[in-house]
Amino acid sequence: MLESLSREVVVGLKQGLHARPADQLAREARKWHSRVELVCKGQRVDGKSILDVLTLAAEEGTRLVVEVTGPDATDAMAAIVRLFEGNFNEQGEASADAGGRPATGRDANCASSDTSRG
Amino acid sequence: MKFSDFVAVDAIRSYVDASTKEGVIREMATALVDAGRISQADLEGIVRAIMKREDLGSTGIGRGVAVPHTKHPSVDRLVGTVAVSQEGINFDSLDGDPVQLFFLLVSPPDRPGDHLRALENISRQLRDEAFCKQLKAAKTPVDIQHLLEKADDHGMVS
Question: What is the pLDDT of residues A20-68, one digit of tens each?
């Protein structure tokens, strides 16, 4: 049965979703059969591609919507949300109150979206 | 952020002598010293810091591309350079392929946003296979500089 799930997460990493967490995210996403996409400020990218994830330039506080569709969507979503909640195991990152919780109207978006595009 | 915002033109290399990960990182960091963008005194510290970051997981992100990087207090703005290896270098990359295109970044510790936007630009441009192919075929630093300028002018990245 194909499941389709959507959940909002917040980037809790002080350094944002930089190369190492982007790699972790893409690696985790590739473990599952389901399609994994990230949506942020009108951009939808493939969560299984590190290049795609990096194009979000998601800074600390950025709200992302994780969309997972496929036969193992529930488990895939849980694994991905766990990465955000655990702040991707980054040392020195406060995880108690920052990662992965539902967004609460915090005013932050993709870093790339607040500049004009040429 | 555009390539021209962080790439030190004088440090671009279209040829590398090195055949190892540390070798190419050292060669690129030395190019930044020669271009006057980082000081000789900081060279070893920066190379060590970049290698330490590589130990956490390769920055070889696939498609023959690597983005070795570190934060370092000696720079007050993001500085980077580009190198092309014709032969390709084993970089323990995510897809196992040798790396031909290197984008080395050194950023101030307190500017994570700039680092993210540089990564954004690099990854967005490198999704364009034609751009990757042209860079890999570049024969001189000036060729590379022109390709970066062209990407800056025509790319989608602001």
Answer: 999 999 999 999 999 999 999 889 999 999 999 999 999 999 999 999 9
d(CA B107, CA B27): 18
Structurally, chain A folds into a number of domains equal to: 1
| CATH class of the domain at B3-152 | alpha beta
Instruction: Give residue-wise pLDDT tens across range B16-75.
Output: 999 999 999 999 999 999 999 999 999 999 999 999 999 988 999 888 999 999 999 999
- Compute the count of residue pairs across chains A and B with CB atoms less than 8 Å apart: 73
CATH of the domain at A9: 3.30.1340.10
The ipTM value here is 0.80
Domain ranges of chain B: 3-152
Nearest to A15 by CA among B107, B143, B12: B107
Cβ under 8 Å to A: B residues 84-103: 94
| Domain membership of residue A23 as a residue range | 3-114
Alpha-carbon distance values, B92 to A87, A89, A103, B4, B68 (Å): 24, 21, 36, 28, 12
